[in-house]
Write a structure and sequence with these properties.
By secondary structure, this protein is mainly alpha-helical. It has one domain. Helix content is about 50%, strand content about 0%. The chain is built from six helices and no strands.
Protein backbone atom coordinates (compact mmCIF):
# COMPACT_ATOMS: atom_id res chain seq x y z
CA UNK A 1 0.00 0.00 0.00
CA UNK A 2 1.25 3.47 -0.87
CA UNK A 3 2.03 6.03 1.81
CA UNK A 4 1.02 9.50 0.67
CA UNK A 5 2.93 12.49 2.01
CA UNK A 6 1.16 15.58 3.31
CA UNK A 7 1.90 17.27 -0.03
CA UNK A 8 0.66 14.44 -2.23
CA UNK A 9 3.98 12.85 -3.14
CA UNK A 10 4.02 9.08 -2.85
CA UNK A 11 6.51 8.32 -0.07
CA UNK A 12 6.75 4.64 -0.93
CA UNK A 13 8.22 5.44 -4.35
CA UNK A 14 10.64 8.10 -3.07
CA UNK A 15 14.32 7.12 -3.31
CA UNK A 16 14.89 8.12 0.33
CA UNK A 17 12.09 5.79 1.45
CA UNK A 18 13.27 2.95 -0.77
CA UNK A 19 16.89 3.37 0.35
CA UNK A 20 15.79 3.41 3.97
CA UNK A 21 13.90 0.16 3.58
CA UNK A 22 16.55 -1.63 1.51
CA UNK A 23 19.81 -0.12 2.86
CA UNK A 24 20.82 0.45 -0.78
CA UNK A 25 24.02 2.51 -0.52
CA UNK A 26 24.30 2.99 -4.29
CA UNK A 27 20.79 4.45 -4.38
CA UNK A 28 21.64 6.75 -1.46
CA UNK A 29 24.77 8.02 -3.24
CA UNK A 30 22.99 8.50 -6.59
CA UNK A 31 20.03 10.27 -5.00
CA UNK A 32 22.24 12.50 -2.85
CA UNK A 33 24.15 13.64 -5.93
CA UNK A 34 20.95 14.24 -7.93
CA UNK A 35 19.20 16.16 -5.14
CA UNK A 36 22.31 18.23 -4.39
CA UNK A 37 22.44 19.33 -8.03
CA UNK A 38 18.68 19.79 -8.46
CA UNK A 39 17.90 21.65 -5.24
CA UNK A 40 21.11 23.56 -4.58
CA UNK A 41 21.55 22.15 -1.10
CA UNK A 42 24.09 19.65 0.14
CA UNK A 43 22.55 16.22 0.54
CA UNK A 44 24.78 13.51 1.96
CA UNK A 45 24.17 9.85 1.12
CA UNK A 46 23.51 9.05 4.79
CA UNK A 47 20.71 11.66 4.73
CA UNK A 48 18.84 9.72 2.05
CA UNK A 49 16.90 7.57 4.48
CA UNK A 50 13.25 8.07 5.40
CA UNK A 51 10.30 6.17 6.81
CA UNK A 52 7.83 8.52 5.10
CA UNK A 53 6.13 11.81 5.82
CA UNK A 54 3.45 10.21 7.95
CA UNK A 55 6.05 8.48 10.11
CA UNK A 56 6.27 9.49 13.74
CA UNK A 57 9.76 8.03 14.02
CA UNK A 58 13.01 9.90 13.73
CA UNK A 59 13.86 8.73 10.20
CA UNK A 60 12.34 11.48 8.10
CA UNK A 61 14.36 13.10 5.33
CA UNK A 62 15.86 16.36 6.61
CA UNK A 63 13.98 18.61 4.18
CA UNK A 64 10.69 16.98 5.13
CA UNK A 65 11.32 17.88 8.77
CA UNK A 66 11.32 21.57 7.81
CA UNK A 67 8.69 21.37 5.05
CA UNK A 68 6.06 24.13 5.31
CA UNK A 69 3.39 21.90 3.75
CA UNK A 70 4.02 19.06 6.20
CA UNK A 71 4.09 21.43 9.18
CA UNK A 72 0.81 23.04 8.14
CA UNK A 73 -0.99 19.75 7.48
CA UNK A 74 0.15 18.10 10.69
CA UNK A 75 -0.48 21.32 12.64
CA UNK A 76 -4.10 21.25 11.51
CA UNK A 77 -4.41 17.58 12.44
CA UNK A 78 -4.79 16.39 8.85
CA UNK A 79 -2.99 13.61 7.03
CA UNK A 80 -2.72 15.43 3.68
CA UNK A 81 -3.63 18.78 2.15
CA UNK A 82 -6.58 17.06 0.48
CA UNK A 83 -8.50 17.32 3.75
CA UNK A 84 -8.12 21.09 4.07
CA UNK A 85 -10.93 23.51 3.16
CA UNK A 86 -8.29 26.01 1.98
CA UNK A 87 -6.78 23.53 -0.52
CA UNK A 88 -7.76 25.29 -3.75
CA UNK A 89 -6.66 28.75 -2.65
CA UNK A 90 -3.61 27.77 -0.59
CA UNK A 91 -0.45 29.53 -1.78
CA UNK A 92 1.80 27.02 0.01
CA UNK A 93 0.53 23.86 -1.68
CA UNK A 94 -0.04 25.55 -5.03
CA UNK A 95 3.53 26.87 -4.94
CA UNK A 96 4.69 23.33 -4.22
CA UNK A 97 2.77 22.05 -7.25
CA UNK A 98 4.93 24.36 -9.36
CA UNK A 99 7.98 22.32 -8.31
CA UNK A 100 6.29 18.92 -8.05
CA UNK A 101 3.25 18.83 -10.36
CA UNK A 102 2.86 15.05 -9.91
CA UNK A 103 1.59 15.64 -6.37
CA UNK A 104 -1.55 17.51 -7.46
CA UNK A 105 -3.38 14.59 -9.15
CA UNK A 106 -2.76 12.46 -6.06
CA UNK A 107 -4.31 15.06 -3.75
CA UNK A 108 -7.11 15.78 -6.21
CA UNK A 109 -7.89 12.05 -6.24
CA UNK A 110 -8.01 11.96 -2.45
CA UNK A 111 -10.34 14.97 -2.41
CA UNK A 112 -12.69 13.24 -4.85
CA UNK A 113 -13.18 10.27 -2.51
Amino acid sequence: MDMIAACGLVCTTCPAYVAGKTADRALQEKTAAEWTAAFGMEVKPEDVVCDGCQSTGSRVFSHCLTCDVRACVHGKGYTTCAECDDYNGCKTINGFFGMCPDAKPTLDGLRAK
